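Reviewers of the previous submission asked for a worked example of the structure-prediction workflow described in the proposal, so we include one complete record here. The input consisted solely of the amino acid sequence. No template or homolog information was supplied to the procedure at any stage.
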Amino acid sequence: MKKRLSLLMVLMMVLSLVPMSVFAASGSMTGGVLSFDDTDENATAEDFSVKLTQGAFSDIKGGGKVAKLTLSNDAEFTTDAQQSVIFNAGGDPITYASTTNSNAVPAADVSVTIDAAFKNIAYVTLNNDIQVGKDAMDILLRLEANFKELNAGDVTLTVDEMNSSKLSVADPIKVAVIKEATSDDFKIVVADSEKKLGMDGGQLSKVEVKDFDANTTTLEFELPDYLSWANTTFAVSVDGAMKTATRNPSDFEKASITDSSLTNADSVLFQPEVKVDRRDSSMGDITLKVTATGGAKQTASEVVGQLVDFEAAMTAVEKGKKEIPSIYGGDDATIKVTIKGVKGTFSDNRAIDFTVKGADITTSSISGSATKLDGGIVTDEDDGEFTYYVNGSNEDELEFNLEISADYAQNGAVTLTAESRDFGTLECEIAKVTPAFTVEVAKITDIKKGESLATADVIIKEAKAGILGSDQFIVLNLNDKNRETLSFASDYKVEATNGLKVDEDIFNEEGGSKNALSTLVVEIESSSVKEAGVITISNVVVNVDGATVDGVKTIDVYVVEDRSYTYGSNDQYSGNVSKMKDAVEFIDRTEPDAEYAVDYVNVVKEYGATATTTVFVIGSKSYTVNGEMMTANEAPFIAGKGYTMLPVRALAESLGLTADWNSNTKTATFSNDSKVASVTMGASTMYVNGTPIPLNAKAEIKNGSTFIELRSLASAFGVELQWDAATKTVTIIG
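From that input alone, the workflow returned the following structure tokens.
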């Protein structure tokens, strides 16, 4: 047993020393690679020989078709391809038909046949098996093919095994090289080689053929095989005289003009109009081949356009100008939007959904032909969404006007996104916005519950002179979202610079005195001149009620216009805003988003207390509490419209809250010594100490874990938030 095992191991070691390449076949041209040019009409029956070298110990299974031969570049085998096939053996005899033979195999036992339907394919048939010995075996195939007027490039022969014969060649064998016949004079001049053509076809760039032989009587125009001429005839200008070119009735990618006027002509002009015959066509350059005959035969090729697949681009400019507008917060602008594509890009009655980010939509209206777009349906004005429908499928350009209005605090780019099943998603910048003014607080002041402290000045700075005007109120709201437990003390003052004037008597919403104010209204009496104005609210003392929830509180800043407001059937506010209390009433009823929400005071249990720092990473279950690594049941994630959802239990435990879950009502409750927060899954409201707090996104359960939106958590638990977009990291301090 040991002896047999050792002999087997020796045999395996010997075989392992045999190069693997000897088991594979390789091929070469024994007589050298043939060479023709792409205008050669005489290369109709050219002989060539191919040698296939079959590796040692790699038997060939016969008894039928053993290999398929395939020529590339439209070359075809001729009937004479069935010439003799000679097998030349190596040093060792070949076992053929179970009989030890000499170094040759009778050619009569091997044949080559051409495929009945595809003349570029032939088959090698072997009647019996061949066993190759330790030396490789050479197989010589003498073949014949038609290389007449092929496209420039290589002609290769691919050898693929059939019926597990093991007769195959890994790399195609180069049989011939087809060179492009050129003339120093004959040329094609193209007006725009970058012109794009879609899958519905259309016109390519204008073409001029010039400097062809003086005795020319015929010009043939040949397109790539995936295109065809759109019409049976088309106009051709020969030295300014109108002539007609005719499409080949059996080969639609070819067309020609035969006319005596071509003799001694200087120039031929035409514009190809084509159809796309195959949807799997190669994208990219479209090359036109022109052949002149009658005199000296000449051929030239040139790129006349690009084939693209439903390509579209969206651009925007300010109406009447050449660039997008640069505006300030509070300004309006009218944008002209253009979507350009190729024919076939826009399907009839196809919806194009648009979304504006960074500004509000005022109106959207069709500009130009009403047959191109149908309707401007604002589906969700708050989210800046509207829809157009394409009217007609022959359009390659759509255009409309869009009116936008920027928020006062908007900063940066306004973008427009277009989505369609036809062309996917497009996005472009339509405006740049600079904030109308900024609100600054030098530092956040820590205030213990039940106490009052002076805070840093609140400074409002215009971006340029005249932005704030006499038709505006600035509303500053200090109300805690949980309970109205914060208020300004009476001893403060307001100053303005550079001609910007404000009403010095700042009243609360009831028109009362300065005492115990939670909302202040600054009425602008006149605009600044020459230089931007600055409003400073100083000597500010904030009172903190003992029931106030811990954490950082913001001062929310709004701008309200002095004008009449009217809403639709679900009126929240309708009437004139002409007084301070009107401005506050407008804010209370409509509950708009604040222009600015600036961190202002931090309500603490004890001065100098160390806050807990919790860090979550979106998509990761791992998080840290004061640097200590923890693991949550589920990872934080980004929901719907970009809201960050955090696992409440993990956060509550890190902040020392007691958590409870009611499975019957699907309500999660979290509490400590000063607050009780409860939230029901799927609800849009959370309750903190009994007060309803609106949620930006509904609470939800994911794999058994409760998630609530980040900003709502901050409001409920009184914590400071930090967001790092680059690392997708949320830091909660509280």
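The two ends are 78 Å apart (CA to CA). We consider this example representative of the routine output the project will generate in years two and three.
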